[in-house]
């Protein structure tokens, strides 16, 4: 008996395969970030170049997954992006702070991190508007 060729199932399999690979890449990066965050002894240890590079990878992978499969993986990838890419860094910095006041270098690093996060979410909102042809003027406070 001959196997029939079904292009629809091939496309679904390719989509599922790419989704799985992206999600696997995200979990690998999250594992590295969690491991390094656990080893940090000072706030500045959270902002070493290799951790920044891993967070950039996480942002890229999560954004790709968010827009590649928004129905199945959009919410989960956005949650991982927020928690592992931005929130965990700030919460760990608060936990590692030894004195009541932040040092100037720590303040600078945290401020840069938060501004990068705000900029990234602005970028995501712009991309949502473009990809899904949304007009969000007047709905959200965003230029």
TrEMBL record:
InterPro entries in UniProt: Est1/Ebs1-like (IPR045153), TPR-like_helical_dom_sf (IPR011990)
One GO cellular component, as annotated: telomerase holoenzyme complex
Domain of life, per lineage: Eukaryota
GO molecular function list: telomerase RNA binding; telomeric DNA binding
Any single GO BP term: nuclear-transcribed mRNA catabolic process, nonsense-mediated decay
Protein name as catalogued: Uncharacterized protein
